[in-house]
Amino acid sequence: MAGGVSTRNVWPSYDKTNVQAAAAKKNTDTLGKDQFLSILVTQLRNQDPMQPLQDKEFIAQMAQFTSVEQLMNMSTELSLMRQNIGSASSIIGKYVEWNEYDGSGGITTLNGKVDSILSKDGVLYARIGAKEVALDYLVSISENDPAAAEPEEETEEAQDGTEEVETP
Q: For bias kind Acidic residues, which ranges apply (predicted)?
């Protein structure tokens, strides 16, 4: 396909090198649970016996840790979602083809121009006219309308004024 666009930007590459690099980066960027608990145990061991850590303070610290952990998880998820939507937005304005099952159990190939990208329950969809098609179902992406590239079919005007299409 001459006007085709690679889907490499839409679907990430999960080769061994990328996964190892992501895992290495993840381990060095944040204070983990084990490190926090180690610090907490050290604090408990070295506290003044005359002024032990109050239950309220301990509970408050645990609640703060839980809140920070949840915020970090949300931040990671939002970053991932932003990255995926950003990559998927590169197909807005392009023509795509996808397969759908018709009422008789056969498969029909449809095409159209992507109007927008949306996310529902963590799944990205391309809005094409009134349809919403999951990006996983796209079979091709191109700059040009594939329907315009097809040769025009000869038509005959029927007696009732409608056009009949002759198929070769």
A: 150-168
132 located within any domain: yes
Domain that residue 21 falls in? 16-47+54-89
Contact by Cβ (8 Å): 86, 119 = no
Q: Which residues pair with 75 in a beta bridge?
A: none
Distance from the Cα of residue 26 to its chain's centroid: 20
* Domain contains 163: no
Q: What's the whole-model pTM score? A: 0.47
Q: Which residue has the tokens 């998927």?
A: 88
Neighbouring C-beta atoms of residue 100, cutoff 10 Å = 12
Nearest Cα neighbor of 142 from 163, 115, 112, 108 is 112
**Beta strand 95-101 pairing with 138-142:** antiparallel
Q: What is the bridge-based pairing of β-strands 138-142 and 155-157?
A: unpaired
Q: What pLDDT sits at residue 160?
A: 39
**Which sign does the torsion angle of CA 9, 12, 15, 20 carry?**
positive
Residue 44 has pLDDT above 90, yes or no: no
